Amino acid sequence: MNTLHNFLFNVFPYICLAVFFMGSLARFDRDQYTWKSDSSQLLRKRQLRWGSNLFHIGILFLFFGHTVGLLTPHFVYEPFITAGQKQMVAVVAGGIAGVICFIGLTLLLHRRIFDDRIRLTSHRTDLGILVILWVQLVLGLVTLPFSYGHSDGQAMLQLSAWAQGIVTLRPDASLLAGLDWVYLVHLVLGMTIFLLFPFSRLVHVWSGFGTLAYVFRPYQVVRSRKLGLKSSAPAEQRPVSH
User: Fold this and answer.
1) pLDDT by residue (tens digit) across 26-64?
2) Range with the poorest average pLDDT among 58-62, 208-212, 217-221, 224-228
3) Are 175 and 158 in contact (CB under 8 A)?
4) For site-directed labelling of 6, which of 110, 117, 146, 216 has its Cα 20 to 30 A away?
5) Are the C-beta atoms of residues 104 and 55 closer than 8 Å to each other?
6) Cα–Cα–Cα angle for 206, 33, 116, nearest 5°?
7) In Å, what is the CA distance from 71 to each residue of 123, 143, 151, 177?
8) CB atoms within 10 A of CB 19
9) 8 Å CB contact between 98 and 104
10) Would you state the pLDDT for residue 124?
């Protein structure tokens, strides 16, 4: 193991996570007006609808698939499915989601580059983060033939052991020894996305998860300021006259 390998897979993950959490918190605290996705829907709606829907469906499946697949200990699923079978499921399901996401992201990138109005109203970081996500997605698709070639599931076990070691504060870069280059590059670029997250439009992802609380929030009580109009609140919530 050389120094660069140890840094990238023992130290760099914690740098990225620290910037990811602390940077997001600082941006929310200091620059809430920039906490948005800067939609360009008014400039070109149809292609955005297809691209955005396909991209978000694919990326959400990939995100949760990676999270569950890498962070679930082997002994949890071992009684039901072998490591090799799990890896084949990941190849098929991840491949389908990856293709859906690739089509959507390519549409978004195309309209961002080739539509003059959208390009002129876009920030450089908007285009940059789309390019980085596109490259990362292509790398993920490139890993599929390599994963298919490791039908014993050994590559998946190595990646899972490393990821779980990062979460439990026991990093061990040696666990990634012998893996094909495409896995390593995919990991490094993925961590870099977390590093860039607070400085890009990706911060709106936090709001996306936060909206789940909207379903469970109480009704807002609204009363008219005009005299002579009844309150829109339910009867049991109206103030009692004395």
Assistant:
1) 998 888 777 766 665 545 566 778 888 999 999 999 999
2) 224-228
3) yes
4) 146
5) yes
6) 90
7) 35, 19, 20, 19
8) 17
9) no
10) 82
